[in-house]
Amino acid sequence: MTDRIQNIIEDIRHKSVAMHQQLLEEREKNSVFQSEVQLLTESIELQTQEENKLLTEISMLKAELETTKSQVVENSHPTGKKDEEIDELVKEIEHCISQLKK
Question: pTM of the full predicted structure?
Fold first, then answer.
């Protein structure tokens, strides 16, 4: 029976060593995964910052576009008014010429 007990103890020892080795391997894998997660998290943070920067730039460009559009609209209105004034003056001149011919 002592041989059998010795064999069982030796078997338990081998299994214990194998489990300890597996534990060390799993801890190493876990460490690698944690490093990978940290790198990915940092990458996400950088991309988020870049996204926010681009969104801010888009907002600024939209505001600048609206300002430019409003300036173009403001500039086009006086030209229309000037055209109307010129048309009125031409009509007056034509009227005066027709009056002079009579």
Answer: 0.54
Amino acid residing at 59? S
Q: Where does residue 69 rank: exposed (0-12), middle (13-18), buried (19+ CB within 10 A)?
A: exposed
CA distance 75 to 65: 15
User: For residue 3, is pLDDT > 60?
Assistant: yes
Cα separation, 25 vs 21, in Å, equals 6
91's tokens: 């009509």
Please report, as a single letter, which amino acid is at residue 28.
Answer: E
80: tokens are 């229309």
* Residue carrying the six token digits 């939209």: 62
Residues 20, 54: Cα–Cα separation, whole Å = 51
